[in-house]
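Figure caption, in words: inputs first, then the predicted bound structure.
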Amino acid sequence: MENKEKKPKNMAPLSLARHGAVALLIFLTLTSAYSFLTEQNGTREEIALSALAADITSGKVVEIIARQDEIEAIYKDTKPDAPHIFAKKEAGVSVTETLQALGVPEQKLGALTLTVKRPSGFSYWFGNIAPFLLPILLLAFLIWFLSRQVRGAGMQALSFGQSKARIIFPHDKKQKVSFKDVAGAKEAKEELKEIVDFLKNPKKFLDIGAQIPKGVLLMGASGTGKTLLARAVAGEANVPFFSISGSEFVEMFVGVGASRVRDLFNMAKKSAPSIIFIDEIDAVGRVRGGGMGGGNDEREQTLNQILVELDGFEPTDRLVVMAATNRPDVLDPALVRPGRFDRRVVVDLPDRGDREEILKIHARGKPLFEDVNLRVIAERTPGFSGADLYSLMNESAILAARENRATVTQYDLIRSIEKVMLGPERRSHLLSVKEKEITAYHEAGHALAASVLEHADPVHKVSIISRGRAAGYTLKLPIEDRKLQSRKEFLDDIAVSLGGFVAEKMLFDDLTTGSSNDLAVATALARDMVTRYGMSDKIGPIALEESAGLSPFGGEYAAREYSEKVGSVVDSEVARIMSEAEGRATDILKKHRKALDTIAKKLIEVETIERDEFEKLLIANGIVPKKKQEI
Ligand code: ADP
Ligand code: MG
Ligand code: ZN
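Bound structure (zinc ion present):
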């Protein structure tokens, strides 16, 4: 999915570079100081000690300056720019002794001006210690540098407490999003306008004593534009946007998440008015203590810190915390208490009109061929989220580009619908003759059951070209967007799911693994009917499974809130629903055996049957097709 936000500014390389630069600077200063001290400045010429002794004896030298391990000689006729003359001597032995040992007579020595220079305190100390210290420093630096590189990516040893928040500043035109970029979601936008208003003009609200919500929770299925909306609020209000994802809080060490939260809030407060956005807050905000064998300490500490921070700022701080989740049901009740995330904004899946608007937004900058009718595409994509529509548009542009066309056509868009729904076609996956026959009957079974059962969605397309992980598929689309599903629809859906299984069993007296997904989906649906929707008469109107927690192994489990006895009734009810559905599917396929054969044969022949063609086959076999979706 597109993500306009920049990758998090990784703190590690940054501080690594900074520390590296500092260390390098120190190193350079030390070495240059060292070389300065040892080398002296100006040109120098070194002569042998014996030569110097001879020169002194012959009276050419007027002055000698003795340093620790060398002697500088100043000659009678030395010009100002001439090189300084040096001779090495043993350290720790006096100059006079050295020269006398080389045969310089005592009176000659007496005639010389003799200066003995002790190195100054610092340079003496430094000159002595540097030769030992420098290599050690260098080594230490190297070790440190290497270990930083190893740890850098993962743990960020020196900066793991710092927040990893991404920041979008209002002057960043490229990343700025406004309400114009979010199509549909009218109610959500309406509610959020209030927040924008507050951030822009807090005085108006504060003066009248209005309580502005601190926390706004955006709830909605994934891809419905929650993140986009939060950014749009920041864009509209022209304030910095600090965002972090719930999952980023959870790191290796206990306490890191909590300190991140603290940093994030501090940072945001400093640049108030601002917005903090915690994406996927359910990753940290799940019901505490719900897991088996104690909770996850790290998660709980992070959550507690979020609660502390939420309680700890005042409306006058002009900070608004937004959060998004697609699992509002699992959130800890403490998070949604008044004074915390008490404002809840539901972001729905787009309806037909919204889908068209979203398509229009993402069609910007993509030249469309004149036959394109986005309305039709919107009609054909019930259940698509904004993110799905975005990738639909993107896929069709890719298709057009791949075929070297400059414009996107309606056909590109239609092909992309299926691609987004089912994953790409795998034409290369060749079925053997037997596999092809089995798949054809399997899909024909689904399609036939869907066409005969009153409450099932009509078939749009049947295919035995493998797609994603499925060997074949039967594409059914609901006639309209729907919010509620009835018991009859569920029962028909289960029977349709079993259509493939039943067809294989009937025709080949054998079963393949191709039905496993169908069975899993159908069984889960049957179980939900019994335990969640009160659709079983034996169990009655009780929701048995509701609260879900996190198991310590990371997975989710539904808390069983019922006894073994009830459990076995549930199991028998699920089994009953499944076997009744199998019976209904079997009856249909037996009754319309001719139709089943016709569809399967056609599938083997042409591999894909579109809706119109499929309905002709139905009519030829005496089945009345469902009402066509009106466009
Ligand atoms: P969520 O956070 O709800 O999972 P996102 O905000 O990340 O969804 O949406 C992903 C992408 O889908 C967005 O970047 C945008 O391109 C597109 N999108 C989603 N909803 C809309 C919308 N209402 N209008 C325009 N684009 C949308
Ligand atoms: Mg998101
Ligand atoms: Zn199937």
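Residues 442, 446, 500, 515, 518 surround zinc ion (ligand 3) (CB under 6 Å).
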